[in-house]
Amino acid sequence: MYWPTYSDAGSDNLVSLFRSSDKPAFNLSYWKDATYDKLVDEAGTHTATDRDKAAELYGQAQRRLLEQAPGAFLYDMRTPVVMNSEVKGFACNPNYSLSISLYQLHRGAS
Q1: pLDDT for 8
Q2: pLDDT class of 80 with cuts at 50, 70, 90
Q3: Who's near 45: CB < 8 A, 6+ residues apart?
Q4: Contacts 24+ apart (CB under 8 A), 85-92
Q5: For residues 58 and 44, is the Cβ–Cβ distance under 8 A?
């Protein structure tokens, strides 16, 4: 179970699963890294205003996470999305690939 968060996945995965806390809630690795915490905290402040900056900071945090290895990453599950070629306006958010915004969809010109 996750708390409601931003839709950029940094908060869902990087913060809730690995950010330090005094009492473990989601950070079940018990990992504490002040540099990592600073990166994900700052990235969260840019999520709505500067997506590129947020992605850059989350990327730095991910690299640090991989270098420090507080958890074992067994696989990266990918979810394929299939769409009829006549349907236009589809934009997939890779963080929520099963949540499709239907109001954007329309039939393309034949």
Answers
A1: 67
A2: confident
A3: none
A4: 86/110
A5: no
Global pTM value: 0.66
- CA proximity to 11, closest of 21, 22, 1, 19: 19
Residue 6: pLDDT band with limits 50, 70, 90: low
H or E element at residue 13: none
Asked whether the beta carbons of 58 and 79 are under 8 A apart, the reply is no
Beta-bridged to residue 106, according to DSSP, are 88
Dig out the tokens for 40 from the structure.
């994900």
Q: Which amino acid is at 14?
A: L
Strand partners, 87: 107
Kindly state the DSSP code that residue 39 receives in the 8-state scheme: H
